[in-house]
Amino acid sequence: MKTSDRYSWTQISLHWLIAVLVIFELFFNEVIESLWRSQRASQFALKPFNIEFWMNPHSAIGALILLLTLWRIWLRFASGAPAAPANEPVIFQWAAKLAHILFYLVLIAMPISGTIQLATGLPIAHQLHELGKPVLMLLIIVHVAAVLVHQFAWKNNIFNRMIGRA
Ligand code: HEM
Ligand code: HEM
What we know:
Blueprint: H1 9-27, H2 30-41, H3 51-54, H4 57-79, H5 90-120, H6 123-153, H7 158-161
Bound molecules: protoporphyrin IX containing FE (2 copies).
């Protein structure tokens, strides 16, 4: 994978914007929950061309996350990312790669499974969407813990490079 000297401002902005939107999706989903419940109770499925399908914060922000994530992945291939810090043990370098790939996969799978669930009520899409919640939370906890280890145990600059200071 291509390496670069630093993350671009676009990559940095996308990282933090997506982080905020993902936290919103994880913790504020009452509106979509009640939409989903009323839909199930009345045995009808909203179609993606219904305005209500997208005119609720959860669907709209979820779709935005998908677009921003695809943009971010494209940038990752086009401009690359800085190499792992030299003092990071190789096994952790691989673990970080794996965690980042998983992040991208989950951020694609969640909006797609959510859309299919809302449009068709397919149980597999519902199960996948529900499974995404603990997976994403676990990834975030491990991710933040890893940043803290980098910062305070290995004392390298990875946090600085995600705020544009390195
Ligand atoms: C909550 C949702 C979050 C998501 C989905 C997320 C996702 C990611 C991903 C996918 C990368 C890899 C970037 C690349 O492609 O090279 C990354 C890097 C990074 N993230 Fe996050 N992140 C989140 C939250 C946070 C938070 C809260 C912090 C602060 C503690 C943080 C700090 C960093 C840092 C410092 C890097 C750079 C790692 C490096 O340079 O190797 N992230 N993040
Ligand atoms: C990255 C984007 C997304 C994330 C992180 C996300 C996350 C979540 C979470 C955490 C829940 C609550 C599940 C629970 O409490 O068990 C939920 C529910 C739901 N989401 Fe999403 N979602 C995303 C995108 C979407 C999109 C784009 C749609 C549809 C257009 C959607 C449709 C739904 C529906 C219908 C529910 C309620 C039914 C249920 O309990 O599973 N989601 N979502």
